[in-house]
């Protein structure tokens, strides 16, 4: 009973009292500055991640800067969060760029773009050390958005998702009603799927009712919290549809610029620290919950076959080339990513030993 209650709470998102007061701008008083940050998450591990970032800021500032985390829909809907930060209704938001890429498909390149042989770690490397942050800031200026964003928390590749049967060939996917978001929707459409874009809390009920045939969200922990194991017993791991993603923490630019240089530095360095904290903590939770799905919930876990992954890459080529032909800035960002990935992954691919070989030596 306790688990079912927790699941319902996770799907709903916890209500936060005093919603009218939540739109208050950052306040400076004898106790310091308070910024209100709405997360795109109603519960579960991603809300914990948002709270972890806030805790780092609060601790490093010694109380002179406080970030107060609000759960999903506390002030505005997830689809309205970026506009709310732009207008100053919210001081900040914790989300992913795929949630607002409707403004510009280039946004999807900052987290859910094509896989150029790299992981989330290397995409964040491009943002921090390869000119990606500067290109994102240029995009914000082009869109006339009054925000400043920081990226962190490299996510492992997202599973292909939950299906009624094991996928052994891409032909099985044609015509299926499938949930995903961002540019991944275009890729899956190119592969012949019928795509439905739903927020996380609506995925499991939609699959249970038959509104969709298959779905992905992000990771074994969140999927188990959503109760996906109750509507499907086939979980396909490995996919290129969203093989790299991370969080965007976006602040109202005027409010961020009004902070002291020390407070700005704390936010920047707290975001940097989340890269390690997220990866170490979340990968352990994901691996634990994958075992629970298999051993406790009777889920059959399959690796997506290479033939399907190859079809995804072909679909990505069609989608990315089409958008690049229509949008010069999209093409500019993608070329910057390719240049970075070509050099960095050349080194890593040559230098990294085959870790799977070593793993099989001990655990096969």
Molecular structure report:
The protein is an alpha/beta fold and 364 residues long. It has a domain at 2-154 and 243-285: Bacterial extracellular solute-binding protein, family 7 (D-Maltodextrin-Binding Protein, domain 2). The protein contains 13 helices and twelve strands. The chain has helices at 2-12, 44-61, 81-87, 120-129, 132-142, 183-190, 203-209, 220-226, 253-258, 261-295, 306-326, 328-351, 355-363; strands spanning 27-29, 32-39, 65-70, 92-95, 147-155, 161-163, 177-179, 194-196, 214-215, 234-237, 245-252, 300-303. Strands 1, 2, 3, 4, 5 and 11 form a six-stranded mixed sheet that branches. It has a three-stranded mixed sheet with strand order 6-10-12, with no helix packed on it. The chain has a three-stranded parallel sheet with strand order 8-7-9, sandwiched between helices. Strand 1 and strand 2 (32-39) form a beta hairpin. Helix 2 runs antiparallel to helix 10 (261-295) and helix 11 packs antiparallel against helix 12.
